[in-house]
Design goal:
The protein is of the alpha/beta class and 220 residues long. It has helices at 44-51, 74-84, 100-110, 115-128, 144-156, 174-189, 201-204, and strands at residues 2-13, 16-28, 33-37, 59-64, 67-68, 85-89, 162-166, 193-197, 209-214, 217-218. Helix 4 crosses helix 5 (144-156). InterPro entries: AAA+_ATPase, ABC_transporter-like_ATP-bd, ABC_transporter-like_CS, MacB-like_ATP-bd, P-loop_NTPase.
Length: 220
């Protein structure tokens, strides 16, 4: 599913070189459930961005689903992301002026899917996260837990094989947070490869595989 070979990522900040990743080797199998933990500034978000194809390594090789994606064009990377990767973020990133249903529908519109098919898929997605009765609500009318459920529905609407969750419970109370983790684990149980970045040790411990990043390196 995922293979990273000797991944380095350096950033130039003024006259200083920041070494965010220092030779990451990592393999993740299809259907795995992985948590990633580590102190602030350790390289967790940089690693996630590279796996998500939102950033490219300074050096090294990234193979996703058997294809080397290290040096693809922006258009090729966008297509791969759209077809293979779903994202769930701490701050939801929903569009305020759109309803819950319209936010979920957006990836289908970008993919050029026909209207009738889109509506059917959105309806099923809302049912899957138990928010059919909130379809016409805008983000300002939803609770934090409901916002994250809509974000998950949007992330999964294209049926990606990989779901990346960056602090998905960071803005939620403990009850809503556990409901979100239960939902993510349900998706993993259906075969979706799940990677969760978290500062919460209790959430991290629920994964089948645990990674800790320190100073840009995986520390086991």
């Amino acid at each position: 599913m995922i293979r990273l070979d000797n991944i380095h990522r350096y950033f130039q900040v003024g006259d200083q070189t920041v070494r965010a990743l220092n030779g990451i080797d990592l393999s993740i199998e299809r259907g795995d459930y992985v948590s990633v933990m580590g102190p602030s500034g350790s390289g967790k978000s940089t690693l996630l961005n590279i796996i998500a194809l939102l950033d490219q390594p300074t050096s090294g090789r990234y193979v996703l689903n058997g294809h080397d994606v290290t040096r693809q064009s922006d258009d090729e990377l966008a297509k791969i992301r759209r077809e293979n990767i779903g994202f769930v973020f701490q701050f939801f990133h929903l569009i305020p002026r759109l309803t819950a249903a319209e936010n979920i529908e957006m990836p289908l519109i970008l993919a050029g899917m026909a209207g009738k098919t889109r509506k059917q898929k959105v309806r099923r997605a809302l049912e899957a996260v138990n928010l059919s009765d909130r379809a016409e609500h805008k983000p300002s009318q939803l609770s934090g837990g409901q916002l994250q459920r809509i974000a998950i529905a949007r992330a999964m609407i294209m049926r990606p094989s990989l779901l990346l969750a960056d602090e998905p419970t960071g803005n939620l109370d403990s009850k809503a947070g556990m409901e979100i983790i239960d939902l993510l684990e349900q998706l993993n149980g259906e075969g979706v490869t799940l990677m969760v970045i978290t500062h919460d040790g209790n959430i991290g411990a629920r994964a089948r595989r645990h990674l800790r990043i320190v100073d840009g390196l995986i520390s086991n």
